[in-house]
Amino acid sequence: xxxxxxxxxxxxxxxxxxxxxxxxxxxxxxxxxxxxxxxxxxxxxxxxxxxxxxxxxxxxxxxxxxxxxxxxxxxxxxxxxxxxxxxxxxxxxxxxxxxxxxxxxxxxxxxxxxxxxxxxxxxxxxxxxxxxxxxxxxxxxxxxxxxxxxxxxxxxxxxxxxxxxxxxxxxxxxxxxxxxxxxxxxxxxxxxxxxxxxxxxxxxxxxx
Length: 208
Known about the structure:
- The chain folds into two domains: 5-52, no CATH class; 62-200, no CATH class.
- Helices cover 55% and strands 8% of the residues.
- It has eight helices and three strands; from the N terminus they run ααββααβαααα.
- It has helices at 5-30, 34-52, 94-102, 107-125, 132-139, 144-155, 165-168, 174-191; strands spanning 62-69, 83-89, 128-129.
- It is elongated, with a radius of gyration of 21 Å.
- It starts with a helix and ends in a 17-residue tail after the last helix.
């Protein structure tokens, strides 16, 4: 993509102008100080701009969601957690279709497991963690027992589906909780161009 410095400069100036308009409206409508209006402007930009700045990022078969940040501790109530925007691939077209066919009568269950694993890793790559409730109520429109069943089936294959529940249940399911955290750290380090020491590597089988 060819950069257009002049156009980029115009866009930056437009954003600054819109910031000034929003700040003025906030001060007038909310009777707040300049600093408070400025903080409100930055908050709105932080929440909405990731979506508005990438209107073409979502492809057919994908969906956009907000999920809890992977940086949030497992014991912290969801209502108080920072949320991050992610784009997930629910259906990968021909690839998923052939995968379902290849598993015969078990094709539907196998594809759901494949999709669960893929979307959980996509969320993790983007700094978020899906919950079992996200999977059940916001993605698959299914019961929680279905998500639990699929996670257990994948676990028997040494495949980790990094969900937030693995952090919350670290005391009862230590191995998967540790694997999820290690997997997140490794991927985050990769995005920053860092290399983890061998002792920090993800256990075999954590990535399918």
